[in-house]
Amino acid sequence: MRSLIDITDFTTKELEELIELACDIIANPEKYSESCKGKKLATLFFEPSTRTRLSFEAAMYELGGNVIGFSEANSSSAAKGESVADTAKTISCYADIIAMRHPKEGAPLVAANNATIPVINAGDGGHCHPTQTLADLLTIYREKGGFNNLTVGFCGDLKFGRTVHSLINALSRYSGIKVVLISPEELKLPSYIKKDTLKKNNIPYVQTTDLEEVIGDLDILYMTRVQRERFFNEEDYLRLKDSYILEPSKLKNAKSDLSIMHPLPRVNEISVAIDSDPRACYFKQVLNGKFMRMALILKLLEEAKR
Ligand code: CP
Fold it and tell me: What's the CA gap between 298 and 36, in Å, rounded?
């Protein structure tokens, strides 16, 4: 049974086919309005979410399907001690496809190994968030027309920011990609991603703590929130949370066609004064996420038939 647990589960060709399908959905929504008639998506969210859960639900409704699920662990039998494996076996009796968010890294993989229906990882702990990467890829495609020859800056919490981990993997497949890693010392990109993704694919990268020093080099600036929920103590979070705040004055050396991205939710890291700047793309990412999730649901349900 085909699932999406990590962005590495899909080939570059498959990612590009999903982008093509999403673009067709955008151009011809009526063509897809009954594609999932009679099908059910289960959204199993053991952690808070606004965009991912609701965009999955909107995606399924726009495909003519239905949605069941829960939005917090405490309203499921996980609160009584039920395992992820048993939950996945149970939901397989009710639904055709699962989208699962869980605070524990690897929980969606456990679900996929026990379900008899496709499972989509909607974010697992500090590990990865492949469907945010789908949203990010469609956004970059629509803003830049492709993925080659881009200098991409990732700024903020690169240690716990799971969306960064998945997007670096996807972009490392293209030529001419350069990566600029901007973070406090304590929140640097994990070594395994530098070794297994950047070095392995010969992607040139630099690490810095100074956003303004490098902003003029960037085609894309991917801002991230400091992930409070992953910290072991509040004191460290409070010390690091405002390390980077993007304000209009900080864009004075930025390119005129810079794309400013953020997976959202934001806290302080992008001033609302940036929202009206034509370079701000983060609400476009939100919308693109729905179209890519529609494309993904269609792909996995089609493959489940075979
Ligand atoms: N980007 C993202 O995953 O947002 P939510 O946590 O609101 O789903």
Answer: 8
Average pLDDT value for residue range 21-34: 98
**pLDDT digit string (tens) for 119-150?**
999 999 888 899 999 999 999 999 999 999 99
Q: Once rounded to an integer, what is the mean pLDDT over residues 170-193? A: 96
At residue 10, what are phi and psi to the nearest 5 degrees? -110, 140
- Whether domain 130-285 has CATH 3.40.50.1370: the reply is yes
For residue 134 and ligand 1, the question of a CB distance below 6 A is answered with no
CB atoms within 10 A of CB 23: 15
How many angstroms does the Cα of residue 306 sit away from the middle of ligand 1? 32
What is the domain partition of the chain in residue ranges?
A: 7-128+286-304, 130-285
Cβ atoms 130, 7 nearer than 8 A: yes
* Best CA proximity match to 69, nearest among 98, 102, 110, 49: 98
Fold of the CATH domain 7-128+286-304: Rossmann fold (3.40.50)
Rounded to an integer, the average pLDDT of 232-258 is 91
7-128+286-304 and 130-285 in the same fold? yes
Residue 265 pLDDT = 94
State yes or no: pLDDT of 300 exceeds 90: yes
Rounded alpha-carbon distances, angstroms, from residue 159 to 37, 47, 75, 125, 302: 41, 19, 30, 12, 35
Give the length of the chain. Answer: 306
- 214 CA to middle of ligand 1, Å? 27
